[in-house]
Amino acid sequence: MSSSDIFDVLNIQQRSKSPGSTASPTPTAVSSGTNGNRTAKPQVTGMQRELYSLLGENQPPVVIQPSNKFKEKLTAITKPSPWTNAPFKANSTVTLHHWIKGTKESIGSEPQESQYAKLNVHLTIPKFNKEEYETFMTKTDEQKQDVANQTADTIKKEENTGSPGESWSFDEIDYLFNLCRRYDMKWFVIHDRYSFGKPRSLEDLKEKFYEVCRNYFSTNSPNDPIMENLNYPREKELERKKYLQRLLARSAAEIAEEEALIIESRKFEMAAKKTLNERESLLRLLDSPNSDQSVSQYMTSQGIAQLYGSLLSDKSKKRKHNSVVPENPWMKQQQQFAQQRQQLQQMQDKRQDGQDLGSPRKTKKQKQEIQTAMKRKAESVYAEHLLKNFSPEERDALGVITHGDKLPPGVYLRSSKISTFKPALQNKVAAILQELDLPIRPAMPTAKVINRHEELLKRITTLVDLKKHLDKLEAEKAIAK
Q: Where is this region: Disordered (predicted)?
């Protein structure tokens, strides 16, 4: 296969190598469409020209863009600021260098102070020479000797410390004050670096420093407020350190015993707090109401309702802290009564089931009526069972009554339970009671009176019913004649 065949397959025309010859043409890409509608293809980077020409009219699905892994060059308009490696004073003896923004002319050649020099603050400790030291220490000793009414603690302290001239020389005092200036009153570091003559304890160094400062200020400026803070309690400091050593030297058994004692003390505190709360609630309950206030505000119904609400809220506040409800002493007896009542109910149900087997089938309403009657009978039997140890005389004397029906909650009057009838029958009953010179409602509604009144009403209703039937039969008899 020749190259011309490949050009024909790829739809590529050939051009002549020279303008006068057309025998050997060079390949050129032909655009899609007619010759008159040729459009230049966009130049694409990132792909070889031969590979892109093989795609033809099918454009790539992804736009090919040049990939540059480097950041773009910064286009800075302003010139960079100059920096200078300038010297500075770290302290009075050391000079270092650091970079500062600016030129050498603007900074200067002399070393400047560090920007952190303002934070290097030292304590102000008094300075004195040997003559001044001997002067104010001698004056102070004379003042102490002139005072006749010194306390026993001051005398004991002077005996323990002695005079400063006997055990402390001026050179040692000066060495101590220099260490205090150098280490900014960091006493543990001062005690570690102290090496002048015989060894001194930390308490000795502190006590001597405060004593000299107190004598110095009392001579030069006795009214300075710093005098109040120049008293060093050496005995208390030694006692505190001994206590701390004993605390750290405890054994594991002693620590456990101390924790157990702490827990027991907390239990006692909680018990005492609970006892105080119970006592307070009891005192509130026993406290009588304040009679100084007027009772006229409680004379109306609104005042009575307000008083009732305040009593209820006070009752809830009193019992708010009582988390445990006391046990009812009659709870066991009530449980026994409930068990006995349940057993009687089961016995009645078994009897009823045995009777229902031999009797014909009953309706739903009849079953409900029978169940209600049995329930009332069981309740009355249960009540009689509870009162079987009481004689009739004792029942009358104590006013104990058994109720077969379930009583409504709350307080009610016996007269409100008197039987009532339809309006027509009620008028006839009232007329009969009026003929008998009896009131419609008893004047003294005791239990016996109410029971007799109920029996009388039942007999009256029975007589009225019989009279009604008798009148009906007489009317039918008169019609039949």
A: 13-41, 315-376
